[in-house]
Amino acid sequence: MLSQKHLLGLENLQKSDIELLLETAESFKEIIDRDVKKVPTLRGKAIVNLFYEPSTRTRTSFELAGKYLSADTINFTSSASSVRKGETLKDTAKTIEMMGVDAVIIRHSSSGAASYLSRHVTASVINAGDGTHEHPTQALLDMFTVKEKKGTLSGLKVAIFGDILHSRVARSNIFGFTKMGSEVFVAGPSTLMPPDIEQMGAKPVEIIEEAVRDADVVIALRIQLERQQKGLFPTIREYSKFFGLNKDKLALAKSDAILLHPGPVNRGIELTSEVIDGSQSVINQQVKNGVAVRMAVLYHLIGGSRE
Ligand code: CP
Q1: 263 lines ligand 1 (CB under 6 A)
Q2: How far are the Cα atoms of 7, 15, 265 from residue 3, in angstroms, in the given order?
Q3: Neighbouring-strand partners of residue 125
Q4: N or C: at which end does the chain have fewer Cβ atoms within 10 angstroms?
């Protein structure tokens, strides 16, 4: 079992919990390649995907993870629910919980929504992305992918670049990778750099080339245009020129460096198609590993009895 009942973020998750989740995901991964993708581990458990923001990867992989473990999974989309009639988050979650749900997976535009919910329901709450705060399962699947390719997370140089300020993925990855012994360098326009970046444990550098040079792992971020006020950088074209990654910039990293992106990618903005589809890209492996990691999270949160 994990030391916590909920998975709200990696900032307060113990290193031993991260290790346990990554080890469990490794053992679950082979189920995804079976002809019959079904084990009875979570038979009788019910899980709801409570998504207030769009998602392809996270929602689908949580649904599949639950199904592969034989749980009953329900998808809730706020735009087609009584939220449209004014129902609050707390009332919606309580209503769903009264139907016998064991885990609530929430994505919401407000930072802190998952934590708020965990104080109002008895089911386990899993944060699937809350505002600009955290996206813990994305960071776990990123770490899983890196560990699979590099054999370790300790002693690696990890470069994260782009819209750090609005990225919950960046925050969770900074907390996760530094906890596991990697050194994290971040680069992005100064207007998209959080003022407390060093307190988070990352090393800010001014240009993307400096972050990427000699890196073992390069993580690109999507520009979160939906969370930005106007005027944080002059134009998309200029952003792409200075903070986009192409083949020449990626060549500054170690020759065996790997390239990650949480998706969805803005092709031609943060990454050129050449590097997205190139031999160093592990973007598709990240998606597959996301199912295994989410199986591990569900198993450890609702798979056993808790005192
Ligand atoms: N990485 C990620 O969270 O993707 P989705 O928005 O498609 O879930």
Answers
A1: yes
A2: 10, 11, 34
A3: 104
A4: C
